[in-house]
Automatic annotation (TrEMBL):
Pfam families: YCII. SUPFAM superfamilies: Dimeric alpha+beta barrel. This is YCII-related domain-containing protein. Belongs to the YciI family. It comes from the Bacteria. Residues 1-116 form the YCII-related domain. InterPro entries: Dimeric_a/b-barrel, YCII. It comes from Micromonospora endolithica.
Amino acid sequence: MRYAMLIFGDDREWTGLSPADEQDVMTGVYEWFERWQPTGRIADGGAELQPRETARTVRAGTDGRPVVTDGPYLELKEVIGAVVILECDDLDEATRIAATWPLAAGMSAVEVRPVMSRE
């Protein structure tokens, strides 16, 4: 079964890192991928997202037509900064793998959710 690993954090912390500190964090992330990719548990290498200022949100207006706003819809301290798709036997295994993610500045939590399948 597939599970989404949603990596949350304050992207303002991330963009405030020095280049050397950012490289240290990324080294930990690359090491995490090197650990788990050979096991076949990473179904999709994932995607790192641009900062919240680059986002647009589309939602229904009062008349039902789409309304587009800049940035995330809610003012949140933490936003999703990256997504990785895991292939695991169950939620417990996906959670054990997610618990090894190298949390650092700008990455304060990892949420694991089963990916919906409509087959």
